[in-house]
Every structure is written in structure tokens, then in C-alpha cells.
Design goal:
The chain is of the alpha+beta class. Helices cover 41% and strands 20% of the residues. The protein has twelve helices and ten strands. The chain has a seven-stranded mixed β-sheet with strand order 1-5-6-10-9-8-7, with helices on both faces. The protein has a three-stranded antiparallel β-sheet with strand order 2-4-3. It starts with a helix and ends with a helix. Bound molecules: phenylalanine. Phenylalanine binds next to strand 9 and strand 10. Its main location: cytoplasm. Its EC number is 6.1.1.20.
């Protein structure tokens, strides 16, 4: 029996020393020391042996069991150490490598940024934002805005006609009518959007952007218009700007005015001998058209609660491209549409 025990020991020691991982080691522990393994069975059966064999067999078997337990514990530690080592090597981070460079995020197009900037100013003044169709009927684009049947803007040379009574809107003003049809006064709205005209040169593209403003309430006066536009001009062009109103004509406002903002170009930023490129030395820059809503326009929407005898309003319309170009000194409108990132990256 001690012979068999010695054989088991040799076999188990060889296998345990060769175990390649902790899982394999656990299998060996079960095989040699587990409940059904041979060595524990021998120990359990000691009592059935002849009395003179019990002492030496028990002693030998116990020694081997202890030896194997010790060997397994030792090998287990070795393996765990090796596995940790490997794990650490796999997970190693070279902190001396340069960090991942931030991915370029992109930015808003100058026109989008400018539109949002303008929207923010009017939102702050209590206006809401609305949008409307770019393909518009002649009724909303011209008729209900009090354009005479022979008004030159209706000409096919100036306006893109889709059919005889449908056009690509030439301005955002048709939304004045649609907005008033949609809800009764009071109304404080701005309407940004694309507009279309048959024009194409350094200062005109066939498609461009406007922001319309419309305020309708009781007791609205030209002073409200001027105060609103002064706040706008100061927010966009600087807190020491002034505005000036010049008489003008639009079919749908009466009186109509063109609005100038005092030149925001620093006087020492261009050579004294050269004319200021922003205001041509006049001190004023035109920024938009506006006026008091013509009572004739209200008569088109009188049935929606707009009685020309009871309410007044002001309206204005500005070109987003023009505001962006003035503010940032962009010399050619077409730069805004070339999509050259070297140009666009300078803004936003
Ligand atoms: N719609 C006019 C234009 O495009 C601008 C404008 C809007 C004028 C509102 C007066 C009132 O030129």
C-alpha cells in the first residue's frame, strides 16, 4: 500500500508542477485530494487494514496529502502571480504617448450664427419666432400686402413665378398676413427665412435670407418702432450706436422708413486719406426697411380681429446676409455660399 501511495505522490507532483493555469490546478486538486480520489479513500479505509499496516500506511498517506496540499498552494500562488503579471502587461498604458487630439467639432455657418444672434435679441424683447412657406401665392406675396396690380416688383424680370399665381416669395412679408390670419392681436413676431429674387452680383444672390418683424397692438407708434430697432442695433453693432429713420416707400407700410445705424467702424481703423468702407464717410449705414403697418393691409385681415380703426402696428424686414457682412466686414456676398472652410472657419 505504501508503494501505491508513493506512486500517487510522484504522479500528482509531476502533474501539479506542470499545471498551466488555476483552472487546471483546481481539476488536479479534485483528482488527487477530492472526495472520490484514491488517496482520501485510502485514509478512510485505514481501519479495514491489518493492524500492523495501519500505522505506516496512515502516516505515509497523511504526509503525501499534506505535501500535495502544500504543493498546490504554492503552485496556485505562482500561477496567480503570473496571471496578474500578464494582466498588467496587457493593460499597460503608455502615459508618455501624446493624448488623443480633440476631434474638430465644426461650427455654425456665419449666416446661421447671425440669424440666431438676431433671433435672440428679439426673443429678449418679447417677440416670438414663426416661419412660413417659401413657395407663396401672389395673393400673400403681393396682393394682400397692398401692391398695386402694376407694381414693378411683380415683374417676371424680378420675381420667380412658379405659375401665374404662385411665386417663390420675394420677401418674408407675406408671413405678416398669414400670422394675422392665424391669431388675433396683440402680436409680436419675427419671421426668419429664405427669399428669392432674380438678381445675381457681388451684393445680390437669387436666394438670400430675411428676418421679418411684426408688432400689432393698441397704441403702437413709430416711437415704438424706433425704440425696438435702437435696442436691436445696439445689441448687434455695439452699445453706443444710434439709429436714424429716413422717409421711404413700401406698399404695405405707411409711413415707411429706411433705418440707418451710426457707423460702427473705428475711425482710426482705416487710413485718414481713405473713405470709410462701411459708411463711405457719411457716418450712417442702411440696415433695414420698415414702417407702420398700412391700414389697407389690416383691411385684408379685418375679419380675423384686425380692425384698422382700433389697432396699429409696425413691421420691418432686414437681410441676414447684409447684417452679417456689415458686422464682419465680408466684402463679397458670394463668399457666404462658396463653402470655403478657410473663410467659414473665421467665424463662430
Ligand atoms: N419686405 C421689404 C423688403 O423686402 C422690407 C420691409 C418689411 C419693409 C417690412 C417694411 C416693412 O424690401
Amino acid at each position: 500500500m505504501t508503494q501505491r501511495i508513493a506512486e500517487l505522490r510522484a504522479e500528482a507532483e509531476a502533474a501539479i508542477s506542470a499545471a498551466a493555469g488555476s483552472a487546471e490546478l483546481e481539476q488536479l486538486r479534485v483528482r488527487y485530494l477530492g472526495r472520490k480520489a484514491e488517496l482520501p479513500n485510502i485514509l478512510r479505509a485505514i481501519a479495514t487494514l491489518p493492524p500492523e499496516e495501519r500505522g505506516p500506511t496512515g502516516k505515509a498517506a497523511n504526509q503525501v496529502r499534506q505535501a500535495l496540499e502544500g504543493l498546490i498552494a504554492q503552485r496556485s500562488e505562482q500561477l496567480a502571480g503570473g496571471e496578474l503579471e500578464q494582466q498588467l502587461r496587457r493593460d499597460v498604458v503608455d502615459v508618455t504617448l501624446p493624448g488623443a487630439p480633440p476631434q474638430p467639432l465644426g461650427r455654425l455657418h456665419l449666416l446661421t450664427a447671425t440669424r440666431r444672434e438676431i433671433e435672440d435679441v428679439f426673443l429678449g424683447l418679447g417677440f416670438r419666432i414663426a416661419e412660413g412657406p417659401e413657395v407663396e401665392t401672389v395673393y400673400y406675396n403681393f396682393d394682400a400686402l397692398n401692391h398695386a396690380p402694376t407694381h414693378p416688383a411683380r415683374d417676371r424680370q424680378d420675381t420667380f413665378y412658379v405659375t401665374d399665381d404662385v411665386v417663390l416669395r420675394t420677401h418674408t412679408s407675406p408671413m405678416q398676413i398669414r400670422a394675422m390670419e392665424a391669431q388675433p392681436p396683440p402680436l409680436y413676431l419675427i419671421i426668419p427665412g429664405r427669399v428669392y429674387r432674380r438678381d445675381n452680383d457681388a451684393t445680390h444672390t437669387p436666394q438670400f435670407h430675411q428676418i421679418e418683424g411684426l408688432a400689432v397692438d393698441e397704441d403702437i407708434t413709430l416711437a415704438d418702432l424706433k425704440g425696438t430697432l435702437l435696442a436691436f442695433a445696439r445689441a448687434i453693432f455695439g452699445s453706443d450706436r444710434e439709429v436714424r429713420l429716413r422717409p421711404h416707400f413700401f406698399p404695405f407700410t405707411e409711413p415707411s422708413v429706411e433705418v440707418d445705424v451710426s457707423c460702427f467702424m473705428a475711425h482710426d481703423s482705416h487710413p485718414p486719406a481713405q473713405r470709410c468702407r462701411v459708411c463711405k464717410d457719411t457716418g450712417w449705414v442702411e440696415i433695414l426697411g420698415s414702417g407702420m403697418v398700412d391700414p389697407n393691409v389690416f383691411s385684408y385681415v379685418a375679419e380675423y380681429g384686425y380692425d384698422p380703426e382700433k389697432i396699429q402696428g409696425f413691421a420691418f424686414g432686414m437681410g441676414i446676409e447684409r447684417i452679417a457682412m456689415l458686422k464682419h466686414g465680408v466684402p463679397d456676398l458670394r463668399l457666404l455660399y462658396d463653402n470655403d472652410v478657410r473663410f467659414l472657419e473665421q467665424f463662430g
